[in-house]
Amino acid sequence: MEQNSPVKHEDFNISDLENQEEFTKNVTYNTLVENLNSLLANEFTLFTKTLNFHWNIYGPSFHSVHKFLDNQYHDLLKIIDGVAERIREIGSHPIGTLEEIKDSTNLVEHPGLQPNPLNMIADLMTDHETIDLQIREILHDLDNSLIEDPGTYDFLTKLIKKHEEMTWMLKSHLEK
């Protein structure tokens, strides 16, 4: 059995190091794209839930909550478009089918159930908080990667602000 010997200086090839760094950047890039597609799936799922609740709201505050959710789902539609476009801007392709979205989301839906209005709002608030944490994790991974992508970093930072605002508005509906 041959023992490993230390690498000699003349055996070292700088292109090996460059190839390893390039490989690592590619793996990191692919992970970033996967994370952004997962974010896109969650945003789309939240959009769909918000739209569903907008259609099915009832009770004494119907009109105000119906209008409020109308604004929320329109904002989410803009977010979805922004995430998909960011994926294209960095040279990849966003997921775009319902099957891909269903396979990529980690938000929970409750088909066939129509919760009361307060539970609808609480459910949406929880989903915004989940997405906020997901974005923070993507930013953390981006901070610790070899790729430099200030455009995605800036985009995601602004997206956190938007979700914080939307969460605050939902939470305000729940306070007594």
By DSSP, the count of extended strands is 0
What is the alpha-carbon Rg in Å?
22 Å
> How far apart lie the N and C ends?
75 Å
H/E order of the elements? Answer: HHHHH
Oligomer: single chain
Which residues form runs of ≥5 with pLDDT under 50? 4-9
**Amount of helix:** over 70%
User: Mean pLDDT, rounded to whole units?
Assistant: 88
Largest sheet: none
| Tally of DSSP helical segments | 5
What fraction of the residues are assigned to beta strands by DSSP?
Answer: under 5%
Shape type: elongated
| Secondary-structure content class | mainly alpha
Describe the structure.
The protein is mainly α and 176 residues long. Helix content is 74%, strand content 0%. It has helices at 14-56, 62-89, 98-104, 117-143, 150-174. The longest helix has 43 residues, at 14-56. It starts with 13 loop residues before the first helix and ends with a helix. 23% of the residues are buried.
Brief write-up:
The chain has 176 residues and is an all-alpha fold. Helices cover 74% and strands 0% of the residues. It contains five helices and no strands.
Which terms would index this structure?
mainly alpha; elongated; 0% strand; 74% helix; 5 helices; 176 residues
SSE map:
Blueprint: H1 14-56, H2 62-89, H3 98-104, H4 117-143, H5 150-174
Helix pairs in contact: 1-2, 1-3, 1-4, 4-5
